[in-house]
Amino acid sequence: MSKKKKGHVLVIDDERSMRDMLEIFLGREGYSVQCCSSAGDALDALKREGPFDLSITDINMPGLSGFDFLRQSRSDYPDMPVLMITAYSSPDSAVEAMKLGAEDYITKPFRIEEIKARISAAIERRRLAEENVELQKLLEARFGFESIVGKSECMRRVFDVIERVSDMDTTVVISGESGTGKELIARALHYHGKERKGLFVTVNCGALVETLLESELFGHRKGAFTGADTDRKGLFATAAGGTLFLDEITETSSAFQVKLLRAIQEREVVPVGDTRPVKVDLRILVATNRDLTNEVREGRFREDLFYRLNVIHIEVPPLRDRKEDIPLLVDHFLEALCDRQERQVPAFSQDAMKALMSYNYPGNVRELENIVERGVALATGDIIGADLLPPEVGRRDTMPRLSDVLPLETAQLDTLLERYERQIIEKALNQAGGNRTRAAELLGVSFRSLRYRLKKYGMAEE
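^ thats the sequence. predicted structure below, dont judge the formating
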């Protein structure tokens, strides 16, 4: 633990003049300094005070050498950087120091500016490493499976599967309706598994056109197509050592699925415009809001890719099938929102909670979170009443009646269905505030599918 802003440094040298010089210099630079005349005394200091931000040790000393100190300190405190100093430089000693894990190696006599720069760099690297560790802990706490809220039996089954397979590198298919939290499940698998030190990279396959999807995933070489001004690394290569999450996997074409199958099987990709494969080592997680088995049966998804992906299947239940989790989710969202806004946490009234429990949530957990956020935003006191809920919450019939669309006695089925579908799309767009991506999620279709329907009904520019 640093005793000063710039760090706490341990100096070990049997020459008093060297100790005094480093103590004065480092003190002027803003470091806290402790000096020892032997490696044995320095090891005792470590036992008393724990790791320093940096240790600077001479190599050749009576009794225990600097190498002895390095070995023991690396064993007890592997993250503490050690800077080696010697008046008898040799290639062998430098190599030995690096093998044992020394941060750096300096030969006497040295220039003050040189050692100043190396000390500063060593302490900065340690600070960054500590920040990365803290960040990793925060990510694991936020996305570990413990953070997924639920006590229902169906969610306990999901937790059990996550816990059992998170540390494997096997492919996992996550299925469920839009808004159920499939990406949260994928992140939990990543941050609870051995890939957690690598990147978690996500791509929505339904939001990209086919040619762009291939370049995005596999990368491209300069000149491969118009606009490819430089080489670009794809997301497969970016996620190497970590996890690649492919959302809306069923929105890919059969031709692209062939390339995807090869990439997953061979653990290599061929960038667009190149013939040389690039090896990638990563975990693949995929998600879909459709029934993959039915997609295979209907010929919309390749059977060989299905069997390659479907090693482990996690089905995330819709919120309507786990209503006992609603109070827990409401409390979770309330606390998170109010913590961010630094305000007192309100509560939903009994009538409001009754309405929340009776609603069927076509948008699932994501919709519930939006409802809670709306209530917090509109509340003027410490109670969120039923009057602050969206109009459709608590109403049993949230969809337009057929008789409101077109009288059945004068309707052709296709016409009736088209008008009914248009009215449903309009309702979803209104509920999403005109955000088409959000409307597609509410409807349980891909953005590409919604865009097609908008164009079909002449609503593309509305």
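The mean pLDDT is 84.
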